[in-house]
Fold this sequence. Notes:
The protein is mainly α. The chain is built from four helices and no strands. The chain is elongated and about 100 Å long.
Amino acid sequence: xxxxxxxxxxxxxxxxxxxxxxxxxxxxxxxxxxxxxxxxxxxxxxxxxxxxxxxxxxxxxxxxxxxxxxxxxxxxxxxxxxxxxxxxxxxxxxxxxxxxxxxxxxxxxxxxxxxxxxxxxxxxxxxxxxxxxxxxxxxxxxxxxxxxxxxxxxxxxxxxxxxxxxxxxxxxxxxxxxxxxxxxxxxxxxxxxxxxxxxxxxxxxxxxxxxxxxxxxxxxxxxxxxxxxxxxxxxxxxxxxxxxxxxxxxxxxxxxxxxxxxxxxxxxxxxxxxxxxxxxxxxxxxx
Length: 287
């Protein structure tokens, strides 16, 4: 008798299991489309955010660069203005500075020359070794000023006041000092060669060792001045007042002393070889 296979319980179990497996839904490896889209949107937003951040940073950097450039230009303009200010000073600024420091040296030779030419009052100021040559300094007041070693050669000082000024080693060669008041001034070893000193006042001045070779000093007053060892050879002192002057060891060779007054002057050791003494008043006892 033949057995029915459908009655086999084992076969039924296997068949049931196969059916269960076949009926299970397939598990897909792909993520849902919506999730992927959201992820893509998030990534895009992050990229946009980063790009915007970079653009902002770039804009900020550019703005910073512009501000820095403008600041540099401003600083350069200020520096340029300061340099311009350094180059140009008003008379009032120079006057204030000269009062504060008592000197003009710090402003440079050009400033000193300009200041001296354009102003009149310099009493007590310092001009040590300054170059003031060739300037028009007429009717200026240098009373009590210190001009030691200054170069005033060729300058025009006619009518100026130099009373009590210090002019040691000053160069006044060929300068014009007509009617200048130098009473009590110190001109030790000063150079006045060929200077025009007509009717100038040197009363009580100190001219020891001064160079007055070929100076023009007609009618000038040297009363009581100390001209010891001074060189006046070839100078024209016609009508000059030399009363009581100290001329010990002075060189007066070839000096023109026509009608000059040397009463009471000390001529000990002086050299008067070739001097013109016509009409001159000489010291008592002078040979």
